[in-house]
Amino acid sequence: MAKRRIGEFELIARYFAPLARGFAGARGLKSDNAFLAADARHDLVVKTDTIVAGVHFLADEKPELVAARALRVCLSDLAAGGATPYAYQLSLSLTLDWTERWVAGFARGLAADQRRFGIALSGGDTTGTPGPTTVTIAAFGRVARGKGLGRDGARAGDELWVTGTIGDAALGLLAARGELKAPALEKRYRLPQPRTAFGPRLVGIASATADISDGLLADAGHIADASRLSVHIERDLVPLSAEARRILAAKPALWSNVLGGGDDYELAIAVPPRKGARLLAASRATGVKVTRIGGFAKGRGVVLTVAGHARRAAQTGYVHF
Questions:
Q1: What is the tens place of the pLDDT at every residue in 45-86?
Q2: Are 170 and 294 found together in one domain?
Q3: In a domain, 154, yes or no
């Protein structure tokens, strides 16, 4: 019998978290961000992410969209940390048959998003590789000193809220592969929309946050695990786009993709009930829709309620290994 390989979070906890021991800004590697003292008023929030052709984006994707995805997945984590984007560094590993035309398109994509999100390139590295093309970005944001948000602050009784709509990107991936016809959802997959304006407004409101990159069940579960709680999710409350509703009505089995497919880059937010009004005010101010879909309680794990029937759900989501 083949030996089971450990998963991403177990690998981090076993081999890399000990290397961060004693460095407070690493938060035990239980957050996607690091928080470093910048000055008397601010912390620098740092997020590094890698995307690989054929794994995180389609191998024939337009270079402008590859650039946008690489930057935006990092900005989504900064938003979850309550941070405002500041600068980034780029490490680009190009296959040996790279073309200047591809790089020019990639740079145009970065330039457009720099203007959109108010962020600038501050350095990095370029190298060749036998393949595939790999893009690593380290993004930096700023947040008020000691106020950065992570996964581990939720308390029993907190409500679970999400931004936007859930599952569009997972269904959009099927569309990009030709398995569904849904152009609007395909765009949602190809071009994530990080909640950079909304995230900083969560400081002082949210007790814990995560961006929804691995899937709703998985990322809400990450908050619950880090906070040593259980999380309860009512499937009937999960916000869906009109196109996703249409697809699910025809193919209910795709609910598993919606709840576990990932790539939404929305925010999962733990909020004390007394701060719900402030959350809704932030929603109105930024034009970002928020929906309450459950809450946190004593215990462990993810409990999914479907049509009034609760069942313990496996924390299914994107698996890196």
A1: 999 999 998 888 888 899 999 999 999 999 999 999 999 999
A2: yes
A3: no
Rg of the chain over Cα atoms, rounded to whole angstroms, equals 19
Angle between helices 183-190 and 242-250 (to 10 degrees): 120
Asked if 270 and 160 count as a contact pair (C-beta separation under 8 A), the reply is yes
Give tens-digit pLDDT for 120-160. 999 989 999 998 999 999 999 999 999 999 999 999 999 99
Domain match, 184 and 131 both: no
Q: Which range marks the domain in which residue 291 is found?
A: 159-313
Structure tokens, 283: 């929603």
Rounded to two decimals, what is the model's pTM? 0.89
Q: Is residue 150 part of a domain?
A: no
For residue range 115-129, what is the model confidence (pLDDT) as tens digits? Answer: 999 999 999 899 999
As a whole number, mean pLDDT of residues 193-217 equals 97
* CATH code where residue 218 lies: 3.90.650.10
Whether 301 and 233 have beta carbons less than 8 Å apart is answered as no
Q: Given CA atoms 78, 81, 84, 86 in this order, what sign does their dihedral have?
A: negative
